[in-house]
Structures are given as structure tokens and as C-alpha cells.
């Protein structure tokens, strides 16, 4: 009887937590190999360096640059710097995924990212994301901290 109760509890927990664990930008990174916008890069392999600054100067939140052109199959090392006065993050995804994830962040503003396509930085801090763009298309990068994307903190990656 105790084993059945444990199994039932496990099944209910999996059903309730499953969607949260599967959301883009969170979790262990498992099951994300088929992402439309590519895959985690290999930091031991060569990569083109693209510097992105996060800014909130003059009341305007933005990424500099906010449009990046990349070749299909190219591995990029994003060198990130938060030049603002508040925490910011960057999440690489499709526009639809980032919009949906932004809704989740609005409900849970203290949500932390633990995925190779996302990085949160405190003011004056730096970080890196290494990403390989395996498919052509237009993809999004946004700060999904509530209010930041809406204030202009978004950009586009064009992969050809």
C-alpha cells in the first residue's frame, strides 16, 4: 500500500511539474536538442565573438546591438556585459517561446534561469553564452524580467 501511495504521489507531482520543467530557459537543459534556434555550443571549439551590452540608461532598456546576423551552422560566443543599474537577463529563443515565457516570468518574477540559452547578470557583471545556430530563420533575444522586454529590451538574430 505504501508503494502504491508513493507511486501515485510521484505521478501527480510529475503531472503538475512537467510543464514547468519543460519551459524554455529553465531546468536542466534536457530535451532541448530540437530547439528551432539551435543548440548549446562547445566552448572548446572556435566561435565568433559577439559582444552585447545590457543598458538601462536614460530610462530606456535595451540591448546593444539589438540586431545580429549569423550564418547557419555558425557557433557564437556572446560576451555579455550588464552596463545598467539593475539586474538584466538575456534569453535566446523563438519570439513565441519568449513571449510565452515572459508571461510565466510575470507570474513568478523571482524565477531563475539555468539553461545554456539564458543568462542573468547583476549590474556591472559579465557573462557568456556559447550557442550554435543550426537552422535558418529569425530568432529573438529578450530580457524577460517583468517589464524589461516591454520597455524595449529585445533584439533579433537573423540566421541565413
TrEMBL record:
Source organism, top-level taxon? Bacteria
Alphabetical list of CDD domains matching this protein: Cupredoxin_like_2
- The Blue (type 1) copper domain sits at 52-160
Which InterPro entries does the entry mention?
Answer: BlueCu_1, Cu-binding_ET, Cupredoxin
A Gene Ontology molecular function term of the record: electron transfer activity
What segment(s) does the record annotate as region Disordered?
A: 23-46
Pfam families assigned: Copper-bind
* UniProt KW keywords: Copper, Metal-binding, Signal
**Statement: the UniProt record of this protein carries the keyword Signal:** yes
Q: Does the keyword Disulfide bond apply?
A: no
Question: Span of the secretion signal?
Answer: 1-22
This protein's name: Putative cupredoxin-like copper-binding protein
Name its species. Answer: Phyllobacterium leguminum
Amino acid at each position: 500500500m505504501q508503494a502504491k501511495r508513493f507511486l501515485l504521489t510521484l505521478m501527480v507531482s510529475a503531472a503538475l511539474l512537467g510543464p514547468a520543467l519543460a519551459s524554455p530557459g529553465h531546468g536542466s537543459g534536457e530535451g532541448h536538442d530540437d530547439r528551432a534556434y539551435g543548440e548549446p555550443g562547445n566552448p572548446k571549439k572556435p566561435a565568433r565573438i559577439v559582444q552585447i551590452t545590457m543598458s538601462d540608461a536614460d530610462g530606456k532598456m535595451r540591448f546593444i546591438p539589438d540586431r545580429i546576423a549569423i550564418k547557419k551552422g555558425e557557433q557564437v560566443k556572446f560576451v555579455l556585459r550588464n552596463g545598467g543599474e539593475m539586474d538584466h537577463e538575456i534569453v535566446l529563443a523563438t519570439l513565441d517561446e519568449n513571449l510565452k515565457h515572459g508571461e510565466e516570468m510575470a507570474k513568478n518574477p523571482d524565477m531563475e534561469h539555468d539553461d545554456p540559452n539564458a543568462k542573468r547578470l547583476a549590474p556591472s557583471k559579465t557573462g557568456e553564452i556559447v550557442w550554435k545556430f543550426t537552422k535558418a530563420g529569425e530568432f529573438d533575444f529578450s530580457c524577460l524580467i517583468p517589464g524589461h522586454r516591454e520597455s524595449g529590451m529585445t533584439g533579433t538574430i537573423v540566421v541565413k
